[in-house]
Each structure stands twice: as structure tokens, then as C-alpha cells.
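Please check these two lines:
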Amino acid sequence: MRIFVAIIFCSLFLLSCNGDPPMVGAPQMKGNNIDEHMINANKTIAHSEETVIDEYVGRRGWKMEKLSEGVRLWEYSKGKGPKVQYEDSVSINYNVEAINGTKIYSNINEKYVAGRRQEMIGLDQAVLQMNYGSKAKVILPSSLAYGIGGDGNRIPQSTILVIDVAID
């Protein structure tokens, strides 16, 4: 009799399992609920970063313009040249730090083709708003910098970047 009860119990247990057991405390989600959960999580992160950026800009008294998707731009030295156009090849010099003040990269000089949505998508948005000869502060939310993965080198995951950039 005990063997019969044990077989029935094991059979019922195995039939009730449908894949991996749920994590303790994790919400049970299927289909569109997962998508909705991820969208809400991303909105929460974006809102949190927006608050951090607003406070940072406010403490410094910078007069920054908010571009699409949350990029901030302040041309503190407006160039006398024409506005950078899509596909223009420009020479840029920039320094990068995390919003917490950690210096990441200094004195980077490179050729840059505007509008190609390169690694730092947000920098591309800012460059297309600037004039040749301009110097600017640019703040990139992590989603428009190196995202949740970082750059695999010196930029940690999910880092808001502050960039001081000059266009020659």
C-alpha cells in the first residue's frame, strides 16, 4: 500500500511540474505580461536616471537643452562654423566621466561621421545639434551611452555619462 501511495504522489508531483520552478517571491508572468513588466521596468529606470540628471544639472547651474530621448546638451562655447550635418566627417575631442564624477576617458581625439548612430547614440544626437568649433557638455542616459552592458572596458554597466566635447 505504501508503494502505491508513493507512486501516486510522485506521479501527481511530476504531472504538476511544467518546467522550471518559480523563484520565491517572483511574480508569475506569461506572454504579454512579461513584455509589460519589462516596459514598466525600463520606464522606472529611465525616470530614475532623469531625476539623477536633473539634480546634477541643477547643482551645476548648467543651462542644458533636453534633446529627444533624454540627451542633454549645453553649448558653453558656440562655434562660428556651420551646423554639423548628417554624414559630415568631423574631428572631435572629448573627455568622458560617469555622473558620479569618476573620470573614465580623457583627451580622446577621433574622426566622427555624424548621423551614423555609433556606439554612443546620444553623442550622435548632440553632435548633430552643434556647430563646427563648438564646445559643449553632453549628458547621456545609460540607454543612449553603453547601455546595461557598459563598454566592456572602463565604463560600467548602466552608467550615465557626462561628456565634454569639442568639434573642430
Notes: The longest strand covers residues 103-113. Helices lie at 2-16, 32-60, 121-127. The beta strands are 65-66, 72-77, 89-98, 103-113, 135-140, 161-167.
